[in-house]
Amino acid sequence: MTVPLTADAREYGLIGDGVADDRPALQELVDALGDATAADGRPRTVRVPAGRYVIRDRPVLWRSGVSLVGAGRGATCFELSNPGAPTRPVPLAWFTTAQHGAGRERHLADVTFAHFEIDGLRVRTEEYDVLAKGLGLQYVLRGRFTDLYVHDTAATGFGCDFLQDTVVEGVLTERCGRQDPGEDMGGAGIGIGVGGWGPVERLAVTDCTARGNGTNGIFLELQQDDWVPPRGIRITSCHTEDNRYGISDWGADGLLVTGCTMLGNHVAGFDVSAQGTTNVGGRGGLVTGCVIDANTGDGIALGNTPGPYGFHGNRVGNNGRYGYWEHNLAGGDQEPATDIVLESNDIHDNALDGIRIDAPLHEPAFLGNRIRGNGRRAAPRTGGGGEGVHCGPLSLTDERADWLPGGHRGKELAVGTGPEQDDVTAVVVDNTTTELTLAPVRPGAGTAWSGGTPNPGAGYRLPDCPAPRAGLTAAAAVTHPYVQGNRVRDDGHPRTQVHAVWIAPEATWTGGRVSGNDFGGNASASTRFDSAPSGGRWRDNAA
Q1: Are 217 and 211 in contact (CB under 8 A)?
Q2: How far is CA 13 from CA 7, 29, 32, 43, 308, in A?
């Protein structure tokens, strides 16, 4: 076979008619170009014209120095399927440590994947398999992944690990993790394992969109617990929506997240915790200039980290639980997080507390934040049924209701489906005076109901509101905090943020400085101390 620097896939046997299996021809071409590159050191490119190329029953084992470039999203599509191999995952391209011996000394170098679509809808394994990805490559050096549309894969859409001197840009992932119930590993839009190259991995993820994926929109995960969490990773200008988690840091060091939007994710917009394979949370990260809004659960959930971590200039609002939640999951790091900084953030209109501390903090700094109008879940218990009640795929309307707008945010709605059937439940994202907007039953779903839309007139119940709801709540040990220049108020009508600061009975607040804050205008007293602070300086705070 003559081996040019650029090969037209059609000239080497690929058909692209959506029927013929193009995998054998593509594998033969990749091997030929890989051999030629190994011989003369000159990288090659496969150009794939518009068409629908079927990759059936077996993935393509990729080779160093071989790039794959299509004619654009919607033009060049690779359709993955496994009708003859129901136990085998079928990514488009793979090269892994376990299957192929990938490592630092045996890596893929100088590869580009660009301008095509991967459709994973026709891959279904008998049991969920984390390898049923769109792309599954490990140990990539000088890679570029650009302008890709990956959707409906059984596991993670873009699932590539250990990316050195690599750029992932303009990748759109939708409805990936189709077979993941939401609790298993993988199942994300963009999932990147880290740590394989050592303490520094130079990786940029930019201008990507992840929507409706089974677990995470974008996540980074340390792959072995004895590895050093790597520095050098940036996530910029990305959008995550309707995933279980928006962006997750499960083991990087110094992750930079800048100018991203995290909207309508089911558990949290931004997450640091021990949920990854190694139970190692991220540390040393910075999140700046992001919009973290209308997530069904928390805006920011931070835990299992020794710190430091900083959040600067973000808008964190309209979330269904807390704006910022400090917590520790079992199985991960339980030591107090040190040097957590929240500075110049707008934390507003969240359903419960603006900031909630449920895990120990040492020397945190809360500086110049505007923490306003939280505690929106202020509507009392209610229920109804009969005439005027009807449900849509993502809504319940009661024409006779007069609810506090936003007052049921984050509550669990129970709806009766029949006299001998159990209630079905859904989570309220927001509400008007007569209509509840509901979260999809799982990411990427078009309905809030697990078993069909309830009939007109169905009875429903909504629980009572919790109290108190504060701008800043401490429910764990806080030592030597620095709280200065914050505006912790509620000037809304009605006021739903009950207190500016609440120190709960189980908390300890020791030392530190709380000064120059505006604590006025909340629904009740500016502060509530069920556990009195010990030492420190509280002065010049407007009540």
Answers
A1: yes
A2: 11, 9, 13, 21, 54
Q: If we measure between CA atoms, which residue out of 332, 335, 328, 342 comes closest to residue 290?
A: 342
Strand ranges (DSSP E) for 264-345? Answer: 268-272, 285-288, 291-293, 298-302, 309-312, 315-317, 324-326, 337-338, 340-343
Kindly report whether the global pTM for this prediction surpasses the value 0.90: yes
E strands present in 6-107: 6-8, 17-21, 44-47, 51-56, 60-61, 66-69, 76-81, 93-95
The pLDDT value recorded for residue 393 is 97
Question: Rounded to whole angstroms, what are the CA distances from 519 to 234, 321, 471, 498, 537?
Answer: 36, 22, 9, 11, 16
Q: Which whole-number Å values give the CA distances from 184 to 31, 100, 215, 216, 459, in the listed order?
A: 34, 24, 8, 11, 34
Phi, psi for 330 (deg, rounded to 5): -60, 145
Strand 17-21 to strand 51-56: parallel, antiparallel, or no bridges (unpaired)? parallel
User: For the segment 15-37, what is each residue's pLDDT rounded down to a tens digit?
Assistant: 999 999 999 999 999 999 999 99
Phi and psi torsions of 160, nearest 5°: -115, 140
> Phi and psi of 303, rounded to 5°?
-165, 175
For CA atoms 21, 26, 27, 29, the dihedral sign is positive
Q: Which residue has the tokens 């971590």?
A: 309
Average pLDDT over every residue of 53-78 = 97
Tokens of 291: 């919009």
Q: What average pLDDT does this structure show over 426-448? A: 96
Q: Between residues 318 and 452, which one has the greater pLDDT?
A: 318
Q: Look up tokens 């007569």; give the residue.
A: 434
H/E element, 99: helix 97-100
pLDDT at 181: 85
Residues 6+ apart with CB under 8 A from 518: 486, 487, 488, 489, 541, 542
The amino acid that residue 332 corresponds to is: G
Please state, as a whole number, how many other Cβ atoms lie within 10 Å of the Cβ of residue 527: 20
Model confidence at 3, in pLDDT bands (50, 70, 90)? confident
Average pLDDT, integer, range 391-418: 94
CB 44 within 8 A of CB 6: yes
Q: Decide the pairing of beta strands 93-95 and 108-109.
A: unpaired
Q: Across the strands, what pairs with 343? A: 312, 367
Q: Which two tokens stand for residue 424?
A: 């079905």
Helix and strand numbers, DSSP H then E, in the chain: 2, 53
Average pLDDT, the chain: 96
What mean pLDDT do residues 342-361 have? 98
Predicted confidence (pLDDT) per residue in 170-212, tens digit: 999 999 999 998 888 899 999 999 999 999 999 999 999 999 9
* pLDDT of 418: 61
Using DSSP, state whether 12 is helix, strand or coil.
helix
Helices (H), 120-246: none
